[in-house]
Amino acid sequence: MLLLILVFYLAPGGGSARERMEHVSVALEELLVAARRQGCLTVGVYESAKLMNADPDCVVLCVLACDAEQEGDVALQIHFTLLRAFCCDVDINILRVSGMKRLADVLGESGEARDLHCLLVTNPHAEHLKLDEVGSYCEESRCNNQWVPLLALRDR
């Protein structure tokens, strides 16, 4: 599977940064839907922090989400800083995403006022759809000194 990912990234015309980010965004959406369906998704800052404190080995991906208007929320940014530090310390892949409306739509949370600022994909033994693609993107970003890559989820 890793070979297919590399072929996509290195293929002529398929390697632009924008196209790659779009591809990873779609893979992330599919991963989150699959994880929710499998019962392997923890939603919410408080719930995520609690799980990472109790069993960090079960976490395979941390997604921190906020839009531009929430960037000034000091309490949320403090939570994000602590979660990022913890993820880096225990080697958990981490992504930052914008597009809260799209994230809510993907997770079927459109009508609810639920905390979607932190999502954890858990259970490293489960076969998560697209986990390798998202994980490879995180690793590639770290190699380029971008420790917490940012993806913009767009309405489709």
Automatic annotation (TrEMBL):
Gene3D superfamilies for this protein: 3.30.1330.30
Gene Ontology CC terms, in alphabetical order: cytoplasm; nucleus
InterPro entries: GADD45, Ribosomal_eL30-like_sf, Ribosomal_eL8/eL30/eS12/Gad45
Pfam families to which the protein is assigned, alphabetical: Ribosomal_L7Ae
Domain Ribosomal protein eL8/eL30/eS12/Gadd45: 27-110
Plastid is among the record's keywords: no
Signal peptide: 1-17
Keywords: Signal
Top-level taxon of the source organism: Eukaryota
Biological process annotations from GO: regulation of cell cycle
Similarity annotation: Belongs to the GADD45 family.
Protein name: Ribosomal protein eL8/eL30/eS12/Gadd45 domain-containing protein
Organism: Denticeps clupeoides
Gene encoding the protein: gadd45bb
